[in-house]
Each structure stands twice: as C-alpha cells, then as structure tokens.
C-alpha cells in the first residue's frame, strides 16, 4: 500500500472550492428521512449547547466542535470511497441555509463556494454526479422538481431536502442563522483519509470495517448481554435468536436493527430527556440515540438486569418486540384495513410513530391485544397530527420529540382500559377545534402535504361511506406517472376577480383556503391552468376526479342515493355551485369542518 494520509478538517476546508467524484458502482444516495432527522437534531442540539443570546458571531470561534467521523478519498479525482451519504446530506443542509438566508435578505459569503465552484467560467457542484445536476440546480434555486422517472438517488436527494425544510427546528431563529452557518462551516469536523490509489482507499475502508471500528452499537450490545449469561447452551440459543431477529430487521434497511433498538429502549425504559434550552445535557432519550449499548450497560439496574436469567429474558423481549416492530414497519409501508391508521401516519412522515406504538405493548400480550393497542395509539397520533398542523404547529422530530416522550411514558406498558383512559385525556388536552383551525387553514409550503392528506382522507372516507373502495392510497401516491395534486378551484388571475377581492393579498388568502382546494390528476390539473370556473366544473364532473371534486356540480346528486343518504344522515351542507367565490368557499369550509369531525374524533376510546 502506498502513502496514506489522515488529518482532521472542518467542513469548510473539505468543501470550499474542492471537487469530489462518486464512482458509478457506489453512487446511490440512500439516506431516508429518519437519518436526516437525526443529523439535523444532532447538529442543532450541539450548536444550541453553546449559543447564548446576543453572542457576537466572533464568539462561535470558542464553541465546541462536532465530529462527523471519517471520509475516505482516493486519487486525483478525490473519489469518495466512504462518506458520500454524510457529504451529500450536509450539502443539502448548506443549500437549505443558503435559501433561507436569501428569504431574509442576508448572505453568507463562503456558503456557495462550499456547494459549487467555478472553472473557466463554468459552475459545477463540488460533489459532481452528472445525473443529479438538474435536481441539485432546482434545490439550489429553491424551485420545484419533478422526480417522475428519476433514479433512486435523485428522488432521495429531493426528498431529503424537503425533509430538511420540514424538520429544521424553529429554535434556530433568523437572528442566529449566521452564527449557525459559521458553526457548521468551521466546527463540524471529519477525519480526511486520503489514499494515492482507489485500490488503497478500498483497503483502508475494508480494514476499518473488518476490525474494531466495524462493531456497531447493536453488536456491542449483543456482546455485553451474551457475556452475562452463564450457561453455554443458553448463551448459544440466545445468540441464535438475536442473530435471526437482527437479520430480519436489516432485510430492507441496513440500520433497521439500530432504529428498532432505539425506539424500543426509548419506548420502555428511558425516563429522562434533554431540556430544550441552551447548555442542557443529554439524558436517557438522547444518549440512547447514540451509543445505546453503553446506556444499557450503565443503566442495568434500571432495566432490571441483575442476573443471568434477566439477561436471557432481555433477549427474549428483544425478539418479541422486534416482531412487533416488524409488524409496525409493514403497516407503515403497505395499506391494510386492520392497521390503516399506522399507514396514514406514515404518509406524512411521522417518524416517531414506532416509539409510541411500542410503548403500551407488554411482553406478555397476545397478538390480538398488541394489534388493538397499536390501533388505539395510531388513532391518537392521527388526531395529534391534524390538530397541530391545522394550527400551523410542526410535527417534525425536533419540535415534537419532548411531547411524544412524555406521552410515551404516560402510556408505557398499560392494559387496554388504562390505555383508552390515558389517550382520552391526551385527546382532551389537544383541545382540537376543527371550526377554528380550518377557517384559517391555507395552502403554503408547510401545509401542502398535510392539506393533501386531509383532502385524501376526507375523500376516501366519503367513498367508504357510500359503498366505494377508498382511493386514499392512489391520492397520496407520488410515484405514478399521473399522480394526484392539489387543485385551486379559483384560477390565479386576480385581474378577473377585482370586484370581489380587495387586493392581491386578499385574493391569495381566499384562493389558498382549504375550502377552495381539491385533488385532481396532475394531467387534468395542468390542463385547467388558465381556465375559468364554468369550464373547470365540466372537468370536475366528468368522472375524472373523485366524489369530493364532483360534488361541486349537479351530477353528483343525481342517481346517487348512497351519497345523498350520507349527506342526510350526517346533516352535511354539500351543494352544487354555478359560480365560486368567497361565500362558496365559506360554505365548503363548513362542510369540511363537519367531515373532519367525522374522520378525526374520540370514538376510539368508546
């Protein structure tokens, strides 16, 4: 092996005006939302440990650093052999920070040179992969990008940027944004390992992953638990159980074992969580998010690990709850009537769901009891999400983790009657008022996916109640050639409506109201771009939409006895409209309020 060099470098030193390549055989960007949530939470929490109100930017020089691990590079091309997931994700974060600074009229001089550099008058991204260029340009310019037909990396990159927009905490306010940029650029460190040849770089990578550095928290936890079991035969048996369950958990997700163990330990054993203030120290919840094997060892008394039998039982519990977690994961990705609320919550990326669903489950529970508990908690999560987002309150990881943790402790290992009682009180505490929330709910970058989900749920509910199979899954599916999109009933031409709306802002508020929105196929939506209401209405009623869309016209009420009965039974104000303005929007909001009360209610506790 030729010369190998390793040195600590911060993100600015690594990225500024420096090009990197990713070879075709390892070029997929695979990170999912949960990885982005953990990265953003780790970085922002670390920064807030040091930041103090009124700190000048120069004070950041004395803040503590954050270590991101190693990056292994090869040859003159700076080929990334190990580290592209983190590098690519940090580039997305830099793009987010750059775009946010633009919106508040500020700039950070070095940030663009960390994202791309210029040679002979041509700009290109520092992490240079040809088939990502269009997507990266759209992200950099903060414009929409159609991922239809795109490769896996492109879809993941665009999705993770949207996740950063969702999960970046409100705690990092505009007045400290430049401080945070300084800290990310100057205080986030890697160990850069550079090999002369690609072959040598791969040898370094293999060596790192074949020796001590390869042991994950899962493997070290297994080693510790097994070492405390006295009987050789029992230890061998428990080792087999552990291996089988870990392999199952890693089947579709290389980090699936770690994700499960974190959720399980937090759900059943964590008692404390870091306070949301500068200088606060990590507690159970936060430590489990990192080296959970150390936490288990340090907290063995809390976990009741006193003798050999206790450690054996721990592995049996691991196996049981791994099965429950697998069932939850399956329910999140594949719609099933039995666990539909778990699926609904996953469609809006509520990643703390497994922790909450595991919390009330007991080791002794039968599968029917487990499913009932999962459904009760999933129904509560469903209401929690809609109650917050309709009031413009985030449900992202960093914002809601403390609340979720407190609910987790409240419902931990309870029987079904107690669980219903506790969830009912949590429901009451939400004080969800659909009438107040929906009257002010409008489409914007934050509410877009939640409004789409609300419209899809309501439309699916009407379909179910009128004897038609719910089309919810199709309404939410973005991977088809012609997905459903949010349609504005009122065309974006203020000049056509000056008699009704006082100014552009008044027009936008009413046009973006949830009462003026529908779901339509993308192709139809695009074809109606500049059409007036009378033309749109013909399309809405031509069986190309759905029952909620069709309800604007007369045909929905003709020869449709089940729909008419549904309206009468629930005293709903559905009616057809020949024109559509403020009065009609107000009436549609009233209908939506009644529908939301039907879909999101407290009957789960009865």
Automatic annotation (TrEMBL):
Taxonomic superkingdom: Bacteria
Protein name per Swiss-Prot or TrEMBL: DUF262 domain-containing protein
Pfam families found in the cross-reference section: GmrSD_C (PF07510), GmrSD_N (PF03235)
Domain GmrSD restriction endonucleases N-terminal, first and last residues per copy: 11-225
Domain GmrSD restriction endonucleases C-terminal residues, every copy: 447-588
Xref: InterPro entries: GmrSD_C, GmrSD_N
Cross-referenced PANTHER family: DUF262 DOMAIN-CONTAINING PROTEIN, SLL5132 PROTEIN
């Amino acid at each position: 092996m030729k010369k190998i060099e390793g040195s600590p470098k911060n993100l600015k030193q690594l990225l500024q005006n420096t090009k990197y390549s990713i070879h075709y055989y390892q070029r997929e960007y695979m990170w999912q939302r949960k990885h982005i949530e953990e990265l953003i939470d780790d970085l922002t929490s670390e920064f807030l440990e040091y930041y103090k109100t009124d700190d000048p930017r120069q004070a950041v020089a004395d803040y503590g650093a954050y270590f991101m691990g190693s990056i292994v590079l090869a040859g003159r091309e700076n080929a990334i052999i190990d580290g592209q997931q983190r590098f690519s994700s940090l580039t997305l974060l830099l793009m987010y920070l750059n775009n946010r600074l633009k919106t508040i009229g500020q700039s950070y001089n070095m940030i663009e040179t960390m994202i791309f550099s210029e040679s002979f008058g041509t700009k290109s991204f520092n992490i240079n992969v040809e088939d990502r260029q269009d997507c990266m340009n759209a992200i950099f310019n903060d414009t929409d990008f159609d991922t239809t037909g795109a490769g896996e990396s492109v879809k993941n990159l665009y999705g993770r940027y949207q996740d950063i927009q969702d999960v970046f905490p409100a705690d990092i306010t505009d007045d400290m944004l430049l401080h945070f940029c300084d800290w990310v650029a100057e205080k986030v460190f890697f160990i850069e390992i550079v090999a002369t040849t690609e072959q040598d770089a791969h040898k370094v990578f293999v060596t790192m992953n074949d020796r001590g550095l390869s042991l994950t928290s899962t493997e070290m936890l297994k080693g510790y638990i097994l070492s405390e079991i006295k009987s050789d035969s029992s230890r061998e048996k428990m080792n087999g159980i552990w291996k089988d369950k870990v392999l199952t958990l890693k089947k579709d997700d290389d980090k699936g074992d770690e994700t499960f163990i974190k959720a399980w330990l937090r759900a059943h054993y964590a008692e404390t969580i870091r306070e949301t203030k500068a200088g606060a120290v990590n507690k159970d919840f936060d430590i489990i998010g990192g080296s959970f094997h150390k936490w288990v060892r340090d907290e063995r008394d809390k976990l009741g690990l006193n003798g050999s039998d206790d450690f054996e039982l721990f592995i049996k519990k691991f196996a049981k709850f791994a099965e429950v977690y697998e069932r939850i994961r399956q329910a999140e990705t594949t719609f099933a009537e039995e666990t539909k609320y778990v699926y609904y919550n996953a469609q809006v990326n509520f990643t703390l769901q497994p922790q909450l669903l595991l919390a009330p489950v007991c080791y002794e529970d039968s599968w029917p009891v487990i499913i009932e508990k999962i459904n009760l908690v999933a129904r509560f999560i469903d209401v929690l999400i809609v109650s917050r987002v309709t009031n413009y309150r985030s449900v992202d990881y960093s914002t809601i983790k403390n609340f979720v943790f407190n609910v987790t402790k409240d419902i931990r290992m309870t029987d079904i009657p107690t669980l219903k009682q506790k969830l009912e009180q949590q429901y009451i505490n939400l004080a969800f008022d659909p009438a107040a929330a929906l009257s002010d709910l409008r489409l914007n970058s934050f509410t877009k996916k939640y409004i789409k989900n609300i419209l899809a749920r309501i439309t699916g509910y009407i379909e179910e109640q009128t004897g038609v199979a719910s089309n919810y899954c199709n309404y939410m599916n973005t991977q088809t050639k012609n997905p459903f999109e949010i349609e504005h009933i009122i065309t974006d031409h203020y000049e056509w409506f000056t008699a009704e709306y006082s100014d552009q802002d008044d027009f936008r508020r009413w046009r973006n109201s949830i009462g003026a929105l529908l779901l339509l196929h993308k192709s139809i939506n695009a074809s109606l771009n500049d059409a007036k209401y009378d033309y749109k209405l013909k399309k809405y009623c031509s069986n190309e939409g759905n029952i909620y869309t069709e309800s604007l016209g007369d045909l929905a009420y003709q020869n449709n006895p089940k729909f008419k009965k549904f309206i009468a039974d629930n005293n709903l104000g559905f009616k057809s409209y020949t024109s559509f303005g403020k009065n009609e929007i107000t009436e549609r909001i009233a209908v939506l309020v009644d529908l939301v009360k039907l879909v999101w209610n407290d009957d789960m506790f009865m």
